[in-house]
């Protein structure tokens, strides 16, 4: 089955690192994504990782993938108030529905100054 | 490029009314889709299209129709609105179908059905 789970809320202080965790169930996922949604806006792709990779770094963002445990994490270094948003983990189910993304419920990140 | 655009941004309907949510993209993308976002849940796929003239159902298609007469446009029709359709609707597009093709999302339409 397809299911993606995330913790609902994370609060950090400005300048600290944030780590948002996600677990997924479909072992055939080929791509895993992190999207950011700011209030009243659509989803913005932050980064993604291919399933044969363990880690991907992109400036302040680090994605770690543990395929054995089906666990994905997003680390934001030096978190800023502008990082306050909802972060969605998603897996790509390409074998049906064309290019379907299965989303988690989202993690609300609150950054305190 | 305007990317993916959606209209209207907000809409209030009465139960039983019909309406069309518009979605357009100017990136010549083949794949387009509609999701709904409900509180505490991830986005769920309503309908999708892999090219002009081709549409298919997603996970939660009941109460919605779509058409794809052009590559650019992918309208979503609510036939007879129900309170359960109160949600935020997102349109997305990608160059091609298949995993790994980045999907671009529109800003969303917030729909309330009374």
Name the descriptors:
heterodimer, A: 58% strand, globular, B: 114 residues, mainly beta, seven-stranded mixed beta sheet
Mean pLDDT of chain B: 93
Which chain pair has the greatest contact? A-B, 30 and 31 residues
Assembly state (oligomeric)? heterodimer
Strand element count of chain B: 11
| Relative strand content of chain B | over 45%
Terminal residue distance of chain A? 41 Å
Low-confidence stretches of chain A: none
Number of helices of chain A: 0
Q: Calculate Rg of chain B over CA atoms.
A: 13 Å
Q: How would you describe the shape of chain B?
A: globular
How are the SSEs ordered, and which strands pair?
The complex is a heterodimer of chains A (113) and B (114).
Chain A: E1 4-6, E2 9-13, E3 18-24, E4 31-37, E5 43-50, E6 55-58, E7 61-66, E8 71-76, E9 85-93, E10 100-103, E11 107-112
Parallel strand pairs in A: 2-11
Antiparallel strand pairs in A: 1-3, 3-8, 4-5, 4-9, 6-7, 7-8, 9-10, 9-11
Chain B: E1 4-7, E2 10-13, E3 19-25, E4 31-37, E5 43-51, E6 54-57, E7 64-66, E8 76-78, E9 87-94, E10 104-105, E11 109-113
Parallel strand pairs in B: 2-11
Antiparallel strand pairs in B: 1-3, 3-8, 4-5, 4-9, 5-6, 7-8, 9-10, 9-11
């Amino acid at each position: 089955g397809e299911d993606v789970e995330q913790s609902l809320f994370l609060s950090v202080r400005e300048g600290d690192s944030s780590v948002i965790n996600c677990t997924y169930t479909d072992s055939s996922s080929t791509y895993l994504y992190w999207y950011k949604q700011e209030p009243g806006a659509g989803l913005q792709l932050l980064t993604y990782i291919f399933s044969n990779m363990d880690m991907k770094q992109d400036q302040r963002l680090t994605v770690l993938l543990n395929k054995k445990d089906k666990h994905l994490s997003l680390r934001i270094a030096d978190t800023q108030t502008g990082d306050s948003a909802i972060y969605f983990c998603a897996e790509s189910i390409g074998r049906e529905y064309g290019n379907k993304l299965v989303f988690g419920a989202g993690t609300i990140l609150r950054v305190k100054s | 490029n305007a990317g993916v655009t959606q209209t209207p941004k907000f809409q209030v309907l009465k139960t039983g009314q019909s309406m069309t949510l518009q979605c357009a993209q100017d990136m010549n993308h083949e794949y387009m889709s509609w999701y709904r976002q409900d509180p505490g849940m991830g986005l769920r796929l309503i309908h999708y299209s892999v090219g002009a003239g081709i549409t298919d159902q997603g996970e939660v298609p009941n109460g919605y129709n779509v058409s794809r007469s052009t590559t650019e446009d992918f309208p979503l029709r609510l036939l007879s609105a129900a309170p359960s359709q109160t949600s935020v609707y997102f349109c997305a597009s990608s160059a091609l179908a298949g995993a790994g093709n980045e999907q671009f999302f529109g800003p969303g339409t917030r729909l309330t059905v009374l």
